[in-house]
Amino acid sequence: MWLRMQPRGAIPQRSRSSHPPVRLSSFSFAIVAVWLALDGHVFVGNPRCQRDERKLVASSAAPSGYIPGVGSLSDETRTVSLQPGSLGMEVDPESGLVKQVFEDGAAERAGVQAGWIFQTVSGKPYELLTLKALLRGEEPFEATFGVLRPNPVAVLDTSLGVIEAEIFLDRVPRTASNFIDLAQSGFYDGVHFHRVIPNFMIQFGCPNAKDPSSPYAGTGGPSDGSFQNLATGITEKRFRGGNIKDEFLSEDSNVKGTLSMANTGQPDSGGSQFFINVRDNTFLDWFSRGDARHPVFGKVIKGYDVAVKISKVYTQNDRPVEPVMMKSVIVTT
Length: 333
Description:
By secondary structure, the protein is mainly β. It folds into two domains: about 25-150, PDZ domain (Pdz3 Domain); about 155-330, Cyclophilin, CATH 2.40.100.10. It is about 10% helix and about 30% strand. It is built from five helices and 22 strands. It has helices spanning about 25-30, 105-110, 130-135, 175-185, 305-310; strands at about 35-40, 40-45, 65, 70-80, 90, 100, 115-120, 125, 140-150, 155-160, 160-165, 190, 195, 200-205, 225-230, 235-240, 260, 275, 295-300, 315, 320, 325-330. One of its GO terms (molecular function) is peptidyl-prolyl cis-trans isomerase activity. Pfam families: Pro_isomerase.
């Protein structure tokens, strides 16, 4: 653990404890799988744990098109004709999100793709009971789907190579928007990695680390101010030295290749600093049994070997002897 004099970038040291059991949040319990794949019947959750299917209605999108926990709708729609019976897909009953399309099913033959979201069925707003009734019928029916916007991609150009990462704007929009806003302002350009531990993680994002030898590297953050939440459209605040509110929503684990927020361990203490895991560090999960609470907001999709290379550089007191600089961070949205 970093000392209090170096609070901003503090993340716990490696733990010898076993991985904690998976715990489902209330949101996870609400998202019960709907299987449309057997004799035209729809199974909701576990047969031993029935729910009132009348309540499983599509979640409405915000004016910005954002559906919490799902993502933002684009302007595109798709209309297909579906045959009654077995569709061969898995659907989230509340949002209408198509989670999986199985081979040789009616949905696949109609061109339905995972990631689409039911908007209407037979000209009516999507509702699970309506869909089930149509599946028991004999006539084909039309369904209209919305299409999600893809998540932004960040290109991190370091002095040791390029890392590309998907940024989870769909799952943690405040945290992702904070990172994107800082990146687009040039905040990260010329900053050095100030804490590197092999087989653990590489940490970055302190403005004091523009000077790689600064004794204050690891203690800084952005200025107070505001930024736009790119998913919801609302204005978010940075406060008490550039911190943002914690966003403990999505149970994405701190596995290798993920980007995660650094903080002091205190509530609402994350700002600009983050780290890339180079091993599975599930004890850092905000939903684990430990004290660590570090939300994941992205994952490396290309150049993971560069992150590993950075983690293996020679260090003194976890600081690279030969500085490793972030030349630029460019985000495409």
